[in-house]
Each structure stands twice: as structure tokens, then as C-alpha cells.
Write a structure and sequence with these properties.
single chain; mainly alpha; 10 helices; about 80% helix
């Protein structure tokens, strides 16, 4: 989960389009060290502390026009706010990330932002908007990726909540197949747990 190997990052990711300032080595070290710190707090369920650090990243990247890193920070903020149950603040960060993703034409950021918006709409009972957001996320998510599996898992969550159990099962299975292909046993186990909970719920309703 940690970003680590910051110098490798600089070689893996090309310089983005003209609207994105080229990130310096010193700034990269600072920003990605902050991302690592936020991850540590998140792993310890200290989401308030993780959020505070990620908001600091947004300030730094805003000042220096590092759009890619700013979008990442907005998505992380949305994650932490979701964990904290502060759903009313999610659209601000999800929408900001989406706008940046569109501006710099980064499909991963676009997919992640739509996915997070979908979760927001689930929590505020906007089921049609949630479904639409998840479909938009799929359009931009790479095939056979953890992100795509996460979107299918979220589809399963949505359909299970609204009683469309066949669709829920189908999407959980799609997620598990991807995790199998990626040899990602931990995420597969979580999705299997979600599927098992749904199947138990279906069984209870039939009694």
C-alpha cells in the first residue's frame, strides 16, 4: 500500500501534459512521504490523522500545480471521509479528482473518482446515480485490475442493498475472478465474505 521507491516513480510516470508542473525530486520525496504517513494512520484506523495529512498534501500540490498528486490526495481524502461517515463532504473531493483526471486525461484517476462518487450515491440512497457512476468507472478502469474488481464489488454491494440479488452475485463473482487472476487472496477473501453475507441474507429471507 505504501508508495515507497519515490525515485522509481519519477521514471515510471512520464511528465504529464502542459497543465501539470514537473515534480521536483525534493517535492516528490516530501509528498510521497506524506502519503506513506497517511497510509500508516489509515492502517491503524486513525482516519482523522490520515485525513489531516492528506489535506496538507492538497495544499502543497495546489501551490505547486502538481495535478496528478493533487488528484490522488483528493481521492484519498474521500476514502478517509467515507470511513469517518462524513458522506456530505465526499462529492467535493471526488468531483475535484474527476475534473483533474479529465484535464490531464488520466483514466485511472477518472475511474477512481467515478467509483468513489458511486459509493457516495449509495450512502445517500441515490441508487440510479450510484449505478451510473459505477458504469462510468468501468469505462475507464483497466481490464484485469484491482480497481476494476473493486468496482464490481461495489456493484455487488449496491445490487444487494436494493434486492437485485442475481446481479449482486454476478458482480461479486466477476470481482473474485479478477482477484484470482491477480493472485490477490486478501481482496478475494473480502469479496467472498461479502458474497457469503448476501447468500445468508437470501437464505434468511426465504425462511
Amino acid at each position: 500500500k505504501a508508495y515507497g521507491l519515490i525515485f522509481i516513480f519519477l521514471f515510471i510516470f512520464p511528465v504529464l501534459c502542459f497543465s501539470q508542473s514537473r515534480i521536483s525530486v525534493s517535492d516528490s520525496i516530501e509528498i510521497y512521504s506524506l502519503f506513506d504517513q497517511a497510509d500508516i494512520y489509515s492502517d491503524e484506523s486513525q482516519f482523522d490523522s490520515a485525513l489531516a495529512i492528506t489535506l496538507k498534501i492538497i495544499e502543497i500540490t495546489e501551490q505547486k500545480h502538481y495535478l496528478h498528486e493533487k488528484a490522488q490526495a483528493h481521492i484519498q481524502c474521500a476514502d478517509y471521509l467515507y470511513q469517518l461517515g462524513e458522506f456530505n463532504k465526499l462529492p467535493e473531493h471526488d468531483s475535484a479528482a474527476l475534473l483533474i483526471g479529465l484535464k490531464i486525461q488520466n483514466n485511472i484517476i477518472i475511474a477512481r473518482a467515478h467509483n468513489k462518487l458511486g459509493l457516495y450515491f449509495v450512502e445517500v440512497y441515490e441508487d440510479a446515480k450510484a449505478e451510473s457512476s459505477f458504469y462510468k468507472a468501468l469505462e475507464f478502469a483497466p481490464e484485469k485490475s484491482v480497481l476494476r474488481a473493486e468496482i464490481y464489488n461495489n456493484f455487488g454491494y449496491l445490487y444487494g442493498l436494493i434486492g437485485q440479488n442475481d446481479k449482486a452475485i454476478e458482480n461479486y463473482m466477476l470481482a473474485m475472478r479478477i482477484y484470482d487472476d491477480l493472485n490477490n487472496s486478501s481482496e478475494r477473501a473480502q469479496t467472498y465474505s461479502n458474497l457469503a453475507a448476501l447468500m445468508n441474507s437470501i437464505g434468511d429471507n426465504k425462511k
